[in-house]
């Protein structure tokens, strides 16, 4: 397939190219697509302007996350074959095109176009954009893969910190008005559509920087002084390669699928219900949590999610991937147990435990590509990562379902306060214990799954 400017052969780095230019290229994509976590900014204006329910206004985000996992799994091998510039360009077209279709949908008052544009086409951009720089970063940083992928995936977690105030200010400038309590009182004609249009165009320019900057190393390149044999100090690291087709036949892949799914389930349950959860826990205490304080709690969790992606994944380069997941899962279970046992005795203890849990949640995303590289090599690690992200799609449904369904059932039974969440907390603890066991079962991949001859990705 002739790709011209986008072809992998056009982006092989010349001698002397600085590998430190690659993380900014990856960040230009991840900071953009991380806007997905700021979708809630658009929910109230859309509900007001198009007379939608809260469930309806959530559909673009929900479809986007589902399409993220599906597109990453379906197109992972093609991303490896065609190279990161092609993948970043496709991500740009889909993600930004989704905004443009959403703008058209709002202007025509056809909400289904918003759902299919932002959630459907945009979700494909999310999935391809999420995995596009992963294998490239690992090839450039074989000595520090956890740090490298942590930088990029930190961008996805931090994208909302940029998008939220920017989108809010834009909506305000274009004609969305709010009352003193933050509720939308009026939406000017064209306000939301114009905001979507500007988002699509601005993100296209920003993501183009990554498309232009990205490079792959030459086949024989390695960092100065790097010796792959020294990596044997960390158990499980291999010098062999496993194809994506063979990887999903190994027990190691499915152990890591369980690890990622249950680690994400544990974190996303709190993240999705953070504000009402802390309010419920302390409502019956002498000092209940105000709406402003609850919003501050959500901001702290977002910051922990972002920082954890870099700090803990970088730490995994020192202590090994298996050990760091022992921390995420084992200590995570103990932190949930602490919340369940101490309930509303201390706000400080509750907040610290929640922040650590969310730091492990974000770090789980950032560390898993390096774990896959350790086990399966660099040959098709991006494609393998894409298949593994189906665990995220499952967890995205499972985590909120456990927390919300049980809380609703307990409320219907007349319970209140921490009692709304006790059962779900113990269920999550059980899932983390299962994830811990799955991590313990990870062993080096059997040689029968290794590629028998050195193959170039372009011929896969």
Automatic annotation (TrEMBL):
Compartmental location? Cell membrane
Q: Which spans are transmembrane here?
A: 20-39, 59-79, 86-105, 111-131, 151-171, 191-214, 253-271, 291-312, 324-343, 349-372, 384-407, 419-438
What InterPro entries would the database entry show?
Answer: MFS, MFS_dom, MFS_trans_sf, Proton-linked_MCT
Report which superkingdom the organism of origin falls in: Bacteria
Q: Which residues form the Major facilitator superfamily (MFS) profile domain?
A: 1-442
- Which Pfam family name is an example for this entry? MFS_1
Its record classes its membrane topology as: Multi-pass membrane protein
UniProt keywords (A-Z) are: Membrane, Transmembrane, Transmembrane helix
Official protein name in the record: MFS family permease
């Amino acid at each position: 397939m002739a790709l011209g400017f986008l072809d992998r052969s056009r982006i092989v780095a010349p001698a002397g190219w600085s590998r430190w230019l690659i993380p900014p290229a990856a960040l230009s994509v991840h900071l953009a697509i991380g806007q997905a976590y700021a979708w809630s900014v658009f929910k109230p204006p859309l509900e007001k302007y198009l007379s939608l329910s809260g469930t309806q206004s959530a559909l673009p985000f929900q479809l986007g996350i589902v399409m993220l996992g599906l597109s990453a799994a379906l197109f992972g091998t093609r991303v490896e074959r065609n190279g990161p510039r092609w993948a970043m360009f496709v991500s740009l077209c889909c993600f930004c095109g989704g905004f443009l279709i959403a703008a058209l949908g709002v202007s025509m008052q056809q909400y289904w176009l918003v759902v299919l544009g932002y959630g459907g086409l945009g979700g494909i951009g999310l999935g391809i954009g999420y995995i596009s720089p992963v294998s490239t970063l690992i090839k450039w940083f074989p000595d520090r893969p956890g740090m490298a992928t942590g930088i990029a995936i930190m961008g996805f977690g931090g994208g909302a910190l940029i998008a939220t105030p920017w989108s809010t200010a834009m909506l305000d400038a274009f004609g969305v008005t709010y009352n003193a309590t933050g509720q939308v009182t009026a939406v000017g004609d064209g306000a939301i559509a114009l905001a979507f249009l500007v988002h699509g165009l601005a993100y296209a320019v920003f993501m183009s920087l990554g498309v232009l900057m990205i490079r792959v190393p030459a086949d024989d390149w390695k960092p100065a002084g790097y010796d792959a044999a020294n990596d044997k100090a960390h158990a499980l690291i291999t010098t062999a390669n496993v194809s994506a087709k063979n990887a999903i036949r190994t027990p190691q892949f499915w152990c890591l699928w369980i690890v990622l799914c249950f680690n994400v389930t544990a974190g996303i349950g709190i993240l999705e219900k953070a504000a009402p959860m802390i309010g419920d826990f302390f409502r019956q205490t002498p000092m209940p949590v105000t709406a402003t304080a609850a919003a501050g709690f959500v901001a702290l969790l977002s910051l922990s999610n972002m920082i954890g992606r870099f700090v803990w994944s970088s730490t995994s380069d020192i202590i090994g991937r298996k050990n760091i997941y022992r921390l995420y899962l084992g200590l995570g279970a103990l932190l949930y147990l602490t919340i369940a046992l101490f309930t509303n005795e201390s706000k400080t203890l509750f907040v610290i435990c929640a922040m650590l849990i969310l730091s492990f949640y974000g770090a789980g995303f950032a560390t898993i590509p390096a774990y896959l590289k350790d086990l399966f090599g660099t040959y098709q690690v991006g494609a393998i990562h894409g298949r593994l992200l189906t665990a995220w799609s499952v967890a995205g449904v499972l985590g909120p379902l456990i927390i919300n369904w049980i809380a609703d059932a307990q409320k219907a039974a007349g319970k209140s306060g921490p009692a709304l969440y006790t059962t779900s907390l113990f269920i999550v603890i059980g899932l983390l214990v299962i994830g811990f066991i799955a991590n313990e079962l990870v062993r080096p991949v059997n040689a029968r799954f290794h590629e028998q001859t050195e193959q170039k990705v372009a011929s896969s």
